[in-house]
Amino acid sequence: MKLLEVQELEIRYRVQGNGFRERRYLQAVNQISFELDRGRTIGLVGESGCGKSSLARSLVLLEEPTNGEIRYQGRNILNMNRAERKDYRRSVQMIFQDPYGSLNPKLTVEASVAEGIRLQGLMTKPDQIQKEVIRLLEKVGLDASATKRYPRQFSGGQRQRIGIARALAVRPELIVCDEPVSALDVSVQAQVINLLRELQTDFQLSYLFITHDLAVVENISHELMVMYLGQIVEQGPAKKIISQPKHPYSQMLIASIPGNRTEADENWSGSRGDIPSPLNVPPGCPFHSRCPLAEERCRLERPLLKPITPRHLVACHLVATED
Ligand SMILES: Nc1ncnc2c1ncn2[C@@H]1O[C@H](COP(=O)(O)OP(=O)(O)OP(=O)(O)O)[C@@H](O)[C@H]1O
Ligand SMILES: [Mg+2]
Question: 164-168, 242-246, 256-260: lowest mean pLDDT where?
C-alpha cells in the first residue's frame, strides 16, 4: 500500500472582488494527483505563488481541500476518527523555511523538542524525556549543551536542525518540508540536505520536499513535480526530468540553474511574458503567455497531463509520447 495518495486535489480560496459583495475565487491548487511510498522523496518545484504551500498545508490539515482526496495508508484523512486523526498529526510533520516561525522563541531547545513527545504521550518520565531530547539533538548534529539555550542563540542552519529534531521527536513517517533550506547559505543548504538524506535512511522517512530552487531538489528527490499556476506540468523520475526536461517550463527552470545551460537555452534568452494572476488563469495552457513555442492551440485548449513513458507525465501539446 502507498503511504500517501493524493487524488485530483483542488484548493480554492474565496477572495474579495472589486465590486461590493463580489465573490471571486483563486484557484491555488488545480487537480493535482500523486503517490508517495515509504522511504521516498517527491520534490515539488515552482515559482513563488504557484500553490506549493497550499498543497503542503492541506497535507497537515491546516487547509481544507475544495475537492479531491488525500489518503494516508489507505484512509481518507478527512474522514478519520479522533484517535486516527491524532495519530495522523503525529505521523505527518512539517518543517518550514524559517524555523523561527515554528520554534517558540521563549522556549528552550529542550522544551521545544520535548513538546510533541509530551503532547502525544510518547513518554512521561522527565529524565526519560531529557535523554530522548539529547539523543535527537545528537542525531541532527547538535549536542547536549544546546538543551538549555534559546533559538536566537543559534545560526540559521542550527535552528533548522532544531526544527528537524522537533519534527523527529514524535517519530513521523512523512515530513512535509516547505522550503526548508531557502533561507540558508548555499554551503549550509548542502549540510541540511545531507542530514535529511541520512535521516531518511535511518528512519525510513518519506518527504514531500518543496522548493522554488531546482538545484536544491536535485540531490534529494526520487520523483519530481513541476508546478505552474496551481497545476502540475511535468511529473516523473527526478533524474530524468533534470537531465531531459520535456515541458518548456521545466526547461526554463533547469536552464536557470547556474552553470547548467543546455541547448534548450536559446529559447530562454531574456524573460518574456508575465506570469498570469492565479485569480485569472488564462484559457488553454497556463504557461502559453511565457512559452516561446506556443501555438494557436496552446492558447485555446488546456493540455492534459499525459504519460510519455509509463511514469513520466507531461502537460504540453507539443510533447509527443516516447516509445
Ligand atoms: N489564505 C489564502 N487566501 C487567499 N489567497 C491565498 C491564501 N493563501 C495563499 N493564497 C494565494 O494562493 C496562491 C498560492 O499561494 P501559496 O502560498 O500556496 O504559493 P507558494 O507556491 O507556496 O508560494 P511561495 O513560493 O511564495 O511560498 C497565491 O496566489 C497566494 O496569494
Ligand atoms: Mg510557499
Answer: 256-260
Choose the residue to mutate in 44, 54, 229 for probing ligand 1, maximizing ligand atoms within 8 Å of C-beta.
54
C-alpha neighbours within 13 Å on the C-beta side of residue 313: 17
Q: If you take atom 2 of ligand 1, which residue's CA is the nearest one?
A: 13
Q: Which atom of ligand 1 is nearest to the CA of 11?
A: 12
Q: Ligand 1, from 15, 23, 26, 216: best to mutate by most atoms within 8 Å of Cβ?
A: 26
pLDDT tens track for 29-49: 999 999 999 999 999 999 999
Mean pLDDT of 182-189: 91
